[in-house]
Fold these 2 entries.
Entry 1:
Amino acid sequence: MNLRLLFLAFALMGSIITATAQGLTGRAFYKSSSSFKISMDSSKMAPEVMADLQKQLKKQMEREYVLSFSQTESNWKQVESLGAGPATASSGGASIVINTGNQDRLLYKNVAEQNYIKEEDLMGKGFLVKDSLRNYDWELTGESKTIGDYTCQKAIYSRIVDSKVFSMGKDEMEASKDTVNVTAWFTMQIPVSHGPDDFWGLPGLILELQNNGMTYIAERIVLNPNEKVEIEIPKKGEMISSEDYKTLSEEKMQEMMKRYSGKPGNGNEVVIKIGN
């Protein structure tokens, strides 16, 4: 009789946990920071000028995001703020503008159906990139730490990707291979498989993530708020697959390279656009 009662208690506890997870909604507020290095010809730019530019940009490239989620769906979007525009820096007669280009873009993920829709902008035209979610082959390390009120576990992921670099004054894009290294800290105290940007697939919410120089850290989490958490599906833009969007992006880059071929500019201004 005691064993039956114990089994029944565990069964009821499991049902309560499952029901709670199924009805779980919330918002997680993240701050991002970037680690990067400016590298230029030292004969054209003094090291102290490069250091000053880098210091200015690092602070300006901090961003705030909100992840709104239910058990199966989520939205990821940058929080609107006065400092959310392009990062700019000037020193020693040089100026740099870094445009992340995602201030108003919405990312929708559905982990149950394993697909996503993401707003993108290419040369002033809006697109809706729709495709299957990337499957991250996470490796659990067994390490743990506390973030705020939550106990987190460490997971890592790496892969080699093909990339192309656009340089002013050159006729062709340079192909290279890069290694992507990702570290995620997730908590099973919030049993949803969501995370910053397009990352997902762990048995708990990702509260901290490092991705090749970019770091996201959750600073505030609101679970089951009184105000209903609305999960929006993007609708503005031409629907396109991720592969077709990548091909179109490369075509536009080639057009730009041809337009500026042999025209490296006046040497005093560098404009960089960072995208996927």
Entry 2:
Amino acid sequence: MANSAQARKRARQSVTRNKHNSSLRSMLRTAIKRVRQAIDAGDKAAAAEVFQKTTSIIDRVADKNIIHKNKAARHKSRLAAAVKSLA
């Protein structure tokens, strides 16, 4: 357990930040799953629309250092390629 006031405060902040970051990570995963589901359904227009929204979410999460910028780029690249490959 934290012994100083500073350490207690840092522990409180850590819990709050962990909760916030977890929700952002969850939002990211859900958005990626939505694009994958649209791709599996075979609807290119819907997949492209969902991909646009997901790209925004991926960038937002990467800007906040929840995920690394290269990981964000990798997700966007693979999803874009999958959407583009739909006939």
